[in-house]
Structure formats: structure tokens, C-alpha cells
């Protein structure tokens, strides 16, 4: 049977790529180094598949259909929004596991939207290329990746409660999967950032450290209880991506989180927190 | 105008290559295929991102359409139009 080996909560900040030199050198070095550190940890975990929980930014899904949650079960490529140093490429999906998650969901009350051929955006591709692909290079073994997309940036949002339930369903599906896969979960997003609003460029370190504490103590109850108004006021519209954290945390069943790095970087418009989920 | 049509137009202008070409060729004609009011058309043509957000349009779309279609793509100008003093100029969605 498949085994869950842990996971990570990491940001997916595209400004790191388009304005590399905008951040103070020390902060930039720490953040890029933290991604490398996560890759080393993923390589050491023995993971053979990473399920990356991200969200669309009103690019992949348009006004004609806005799914609450979607899983790619077949061909995957991306990102759609290429960046300097983040080029579009074909991605090795674990199609059997992704299909099993969708089918398990159908049986237990989770009607997944399914993408048969999917193009990711940076929410998937930044952690994929910086952590998963890099871990594959370091370990010398293939690590496949399953894209899961939640409605965390475009309303109607998935509720925090449902994000947790979805994570628990993914976990149950993985543990029931007949294979020798070793699975890690990556929650992609956050922490505080304001996207496209007049507050863009602000970072709320106090809020970020509060969220980091909840993640490291695996206090999913408190994360779920956060109201949208509070998240928007304290962390900005980008912090709604905490939903991705909740889903990945619930899926991992981790005992605790360990802070890898936190840097508040207004020049990169984000409070950047990287946490390892340890089972 | 209701938010839904404004968002459809701005989504097209953010990600759809054909729509971008048609808008650049003749913006008024491109917009005429949508049920937009005169104020809606003005906001889109003048890149009035503040007005569009006040009409309920997602900031992800006002930023995406600004980056893709505005003559001046600087985010510092975008921020000024929103009433912000932010000097942030990174031009990307996040």
C-alpha cells in the first residue's frame, strides 16, 4: 500500500523570478536557500510522488467555469505563465494515483472536477521545479507530481472547512491505494500578500508568524476557524491560499511542522514562509 | 453592469490571444460584442482599474489585463491609479 512520508508548506511568489534583485541580498539568499533545503529534505524522505495543492489565479479557469477543487488525472504541462527561470515543460503526473483519488472521492462524497489534460500555473510549477524536480536530481530517482487546484484566489472560494475535509479524503485515498508509492504533500501559497490591490507590497509579519505557529503545531482547527474577513484584513487576498495549507496538512496527517525559513520581503510583496510537515 | 460580463471581458484580455489582437486592432469594436454599458466601456478603455475593482471585478483580473493590454504596463502606475503610493513595480500576478 502507498505510504505518506510528509510534506511542505511553501510560497509560490513569482516576483522572486521577475525581480530577483529587488529583495535585500541576505533575504533573497535565505529564501532561495530554503527552497533548496526543502528539496534536500524531500530527496531524503524517499518520496516517489508529490501531491501539490495550489490554486488558480484567474488564468487557467475563466468565468465560464470556476471549480471549487480540481485534480489533473492525465497529461500535465506548465506553467502557463512562464517566468524567467521557470519555463514551460512536460510534467510526469502519477496518473494512477490521481485517478484513484478522484474515484475514491466520487465514492465518498467528493465530486472532483477532473482535468484530463492540464496546464499548471506558477502555484504548482514553482514548488514543482524548485523542490520536486530538484529532489529528483539530488536523489537520482523519479518523483512524479499530482496537481490539485483549490478555489483559494478566485471566489466563490472553497471553505476552509471543506479544504480540510478534502485533505482528509485525499489522505484516505492515498492510504487505500494499492501501490508502493511514497507520497509527500506540498501546500503552495501564502503567507500575507495583497495581489492587484492598492495594498500590494505590504507584508504583515505578525499575522505570518501567527499562521506559522498554527502550522507548526498542526492546529488545523484554528486555521479552519479563521474567517475570510479576518484573513483578508490581516493577510490580504493572497492569504486566502491558507486553504492550500489546510488541505495539505490534513492530507499529510503530520505530527508537527518545522519552520525551515521565514522572511518578510515587501520588495517581493510577500511574507515567505517555508515549513516542513513531519509525520 | 454586473460584475460577470466585466470579468469575462477582462479574463479574455488577460489570457486569450485572439481577444488581445482584436482589442488592439479596434478596442471599441471588440467591446461591442459584449452587453456593456457606456460607463463599463469607458472604464475598460481608460484602464480605470480602481473603478473596475469598485464594480466588483477581481484584482487578479484588473492586474492581468493591465499587464497584458495597457500602454504603460508599469505596476507603479497601476498602483497610483488605485490610489496607492506603493513604488512596487514588479509586473506579475501572484
Write the layout of secondary structure elements.
The complex is a heterodimer of chains A (279) and B (94).
Chain A: E1 3-10, H1 15-18, H2 25-45, E2 49-55, E3 69-78, E4 89-91, H3 95-107, E5 113-119, H4 122-139, E6 144-150, H5 160-175, E7 182-188, H6 205-216, H7 220-225, H8 228-235, H9 242-252, E8 256-265, E9 270-278
Parallel strand pairs in A: 1-7, 2-6, 2-7, 3-5
Antiparallel strand pairs in A: 1-9, 3-4, 3-6, 8-9
Helix pairs in contact in A: 2-4, 3-5, 5-9
Chain B: H1 3-15, H2 17-25, H3 27-31, H4 38-45, H5 49-54, H6 59-69, H7 75-82
Helix pairs in contact in B: 1-2, 1-6
Salient structural properties:
heterodimer, A: 279 residues, alpha/beta, B: 94 residues, 7 helices, 64% helix
How is this structure best described in words?
- The complex is a heterodimer of chains A (279) and B (94).
- Chain A has helices at residues 15-18, 25-45, 95-107, 122-139, 160-175, 205-216, 220-225, 228-235, 242-252; strands at residues 3-10, 49-55, 69-78, 89-91, 113-119, 144-150, 182-188, 256-265, 270-278.
- Chain A is of the alpha/beta class and 279 residues long.
- Chain A has one domain (3-278): LigB-like (Protocatechuate 4,5-dioxygenase, Chain B, 3-Layer(aba) Sandwich), CATH 3.40.830.
- In chain A, strands 1, 2, 3, 4, 5, 6, 7, 8 and 9 form a 9-stranded mixed beta sheet that branches.
- In chain A, helix 5 (160-175) runs parallel beside helix 9 (242-252).
- The longest helix of chain A has 21 residues, at 25-45.
- Chain B has 94 residues and is mostly helical.
- The radius of gyration of chain B is 12 Å and the shape is globular.
- The chains are: A alpha/beta (279), B mainly alpha (94).
Number of strands of chain A: 9
Number of domains of chain A: 1
Gap from first CA to last CA of chain B: 27 Å
**Could you estimate the helical fraction of the residues of chain B in percent?**
55-70%
Poorly predicted sequence stretches spanning 5 or more consecutive residues of chain B: none
CATH architectural arrangement of chain A: 3-Layer(aba) Sandwich
Shape of chain B: globular
Q: What is the overall number of helices of chain A? A: 9
* Category from helices, strands and their pairing of chain A: alpha/beta
Number of domains of chain B: 1
User: Proportion of β residues of chain B?
Assistant: under 5%
Amino acid at each position: 500500500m502507498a505510504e505518506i512520508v510528509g510534506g511542505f508548506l511553501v510560497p509560490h511568489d513569482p516576483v522572486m523570478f521577475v525581480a530577483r534583485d529587488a529583495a535585500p541580498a541576505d533575504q533573497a539568499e535565505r529564501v532561495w536557500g530554503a527552497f533548496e533545503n526543502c528539496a534536500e529534505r524531500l530527496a531524503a524522505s524517499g518520496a516517489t510522488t508529490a501531491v501539490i495543492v495550489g490554486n488558480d489565479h484567474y488564468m487557467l479557469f475563466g468565468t465560464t467555469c470556476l471549480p471549487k477543487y480540481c485534480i489533473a488525472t492525465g497529461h500535465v504541462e506548465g506553467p502557463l505563465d512562464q517566468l524567467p527561470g521557470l519555463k514551460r515543460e512536460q510534467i510526469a503526473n502519477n496518473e494512477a494515483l490521481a485517478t484513484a483519488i478522484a474515484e475514491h472521492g466520487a465514492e465518498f462524497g467528493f465530486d472532483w472536477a477532473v482535468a484530463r489534460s492540464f496546464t499548471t500555473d506558477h502555484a504548482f510549477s514553482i514548488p514543482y521545479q524548485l523542490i520536486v524536480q530538484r529532489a529528483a536530481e539530488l536523489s537520482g530517482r523519479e518523483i512524479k507530481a499530482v496537481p490539485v487546484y483549490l478555489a483559494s484566489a478566485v471566489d466563490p472560494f472553497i471553505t476552509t472547512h471543506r479544504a480540510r475535509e478534502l485533505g482528509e479524503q485525499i489522505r484516505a485515498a492515498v492510504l487505500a491505494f494499492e501501490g508502493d508509492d511514497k507520497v509527500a504533500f506540498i501546500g503552495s501559497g501564502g503567507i500575507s500578500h495583497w495581489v492587484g490591490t492598492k495594498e500590494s507590497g505590504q507584508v504583515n509579519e505578525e499575522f505570518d508568524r501567527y499562521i506559522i505557529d498554527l502550522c507548526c503545531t498542526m492546529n488545523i482547527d484554528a486555521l479552519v476557524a479563521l474567517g475570510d474577513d479576518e484573513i483578508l484584513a490581516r493577510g490580504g487576498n493572497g492569504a486566502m491560499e491558507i486553504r492550500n495549507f489546510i488541505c495539505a496538512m490534513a492530507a499529510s496527517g503530520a505530527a508537527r511542522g518545522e519552520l525551515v525559513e521565514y522572511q518578510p520581503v515587501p520588495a517581493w510583496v510577500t511574507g515567505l514562509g517555508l515549513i516542513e510537515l513531519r509525520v | 453592469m454586473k460584475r460577470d460580463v466585466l470579468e469575462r471581458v477582462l479574463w479574455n484580455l488577460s489570457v486569450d490571444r485572439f481577444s488581445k489582437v482584436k482589442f488592439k486592432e479596434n478596442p471599441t469594436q471588440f467591446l461591442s460584442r459584449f452587453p456593456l454599458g457606456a460607463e463599463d466601456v469607458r472604464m475598460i478603455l481608460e484602464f480605470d482599474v480602481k473603478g473596475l475593482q469598485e464594480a466588483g471585478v477581481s484584482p487578479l483580473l484588473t492586474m492581468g489585463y493591465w499587464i497584458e493590454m495597457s500602454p504603460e504596463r508599469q505596476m507603479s502606475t497601476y498602483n497610483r491609479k488605485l490610489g496607492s503610493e506603493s513604488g512596487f513595480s514588479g509586473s506579475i500576478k501572484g
